[in-house]
UniProtKB/TrEMBL annotation:
SUPFAM superfamilies: ALDH-like. The lineage of its organism: Eukaryota, Viridiplantae, Streptophyta, Embryophyta, Tracheophyta. The keyword NAD applies. PANTHER family: ALDEHYDE DEHYDROGENASE-RELATED. This is Aldehyde dehydrogenase 1. GO terms for molecular function: aldehyde dehydrogenase [NAD(P)+] activity. Homotetramer. The active site is at E271. Keywords: NAD, Oxidoreductase. Residues 33-494 form the Aldehyde dehydrogenase domain. It catalyses: octanal + NADP(+) + H2O = octanoate + NADPH + 2 H(+). Belongs to the aldehyde dehydrogenase family.
Amino acid sequence: MAAANGNGSSGKGFEVPRVEVRFTKLFVNGQFVDAVSGKTFETRDPRTGEVIANIAEGDKADVDLAVKAAREAFDNGPWPRMSGYERGRILHKFADLIEEHVEELAMLDTVDAGKLFAVGRAHDIPGAAHLLRYYAGAADKIHGETLKMAQRMHGYTLKEPVGVVGHIVPWNYPTTMFFFKVSPALAAGCAVVVKPAEQTPLSALFYAHLAKKAGLPDGVLNVVPGFGPTAGAAVAAHMDVDKLSFTGSTEVGRLVMKAAAESNLKPVSLELGGKSPFIVFDDADIDMAVNLANFAAYTNKGEICVAGTRIYVQEGIYDAFVKKAAEVARKSVVGDPFNPRVNQGPQVDKDQYEKVLKYIDIGKREGATLVTGGKACGDKGYYIEPTIFTDVKDDMAIAQDEIFGPVMALMKFKTVEEVIQKANNTRYGLAAGIVTKNIDIANTMSRSIRAGSIWINCYFAFDPDAPFGGYKMSGFGKDMGMDGLEKYLQTKTVVTPLYNTPWL
């Protein structure tokens, strides 16, 4: 297993690019500005633990200024009063600029979040532009309907932007999550205040720069880096924020919802934790199933809310599956995410790294069998080996808690009925994977599992047109698809009397 090489040299036969950080200040009302307090905080490179840059630290005073700018832009500015076609043209220009800076943006997410550079360049950044274009195309297709009323009244509905939206964005997919939220809100005509995760502020600030360059009016997009208990809490509790969208942990989601309720009862959408089941039936092609399970559990070093880390394998192929899964995990190359040979980069920061290692220790103490992995690797940075446990019981912490790291829990089952019960034995309900050649089993499972996304013989099958969101304690409200646009709109009913009309 390759050790991390984060020293900026060619080391193992690849060149680590020199990454320039151009934007480190808050973006408020179309300008990059210092925090009111003058404070800054460090953002660190998880490959080495070294400081990348000092970022302006926003808090309540800065959130107040950002919300004031957004409020003015929404109440009196041109953005919500433009035609959808005009908004769409600016969003398409924004997407053009993202595509012109794919390499630089992918580098920022690599040094800030430890994400694989090749994946960011090929998928994350182009995917953000794609999603922006999807909603740019929807901006001029927002309309209500004519009502067929039972009395002599003419009624119709209007779809109007909800107003000023607060977005609190997680650190695991800094670019993807930014555009999950910002794209539909802007297309709807809202003004937004984004609080990026303190671990990964760099790309969000770059996107603010590109939005201004694309022609987004001042105040429509504001970015306030800072910490959850200060900047995030100020966004959640602000009396002039009309709508809140949060992606992150279930624990913080509770606090966000409480703050929204105790302030101005702003509506909230939450995309929270997950502990997704990945279910393999006896009829599956084992090699395909193992590779898909590896993909489901270890993508983005397990730092993904829909990670399929509860692996249920039917008893007829269980032993063969365990053997092959261990072989695949052992071949995985852990190291510098700029290295094209690497499969897995570092955890995002020291706290997350230590949390994952703690769960691995808990798994051992609970009596699960460690088949492979389970250790830190590399002489610096936050790298952890792909880890597999067997003999896992459903009530173990490693089977119930969201670890957010490269830890796979393997379990055996006999029947369809049994695995449905096991799959649903969780407080979460974000996603599930099913591997089978039997269409009847696939249909039964997809309708029986209580989760927002069911992927059959595939995984991470995200698409701009496919709504994404959870059941149960994984939250509520959808990102992507037209459902993702609807949550930034509100419906107004307009009724006028009809006189001497020949028909109703």
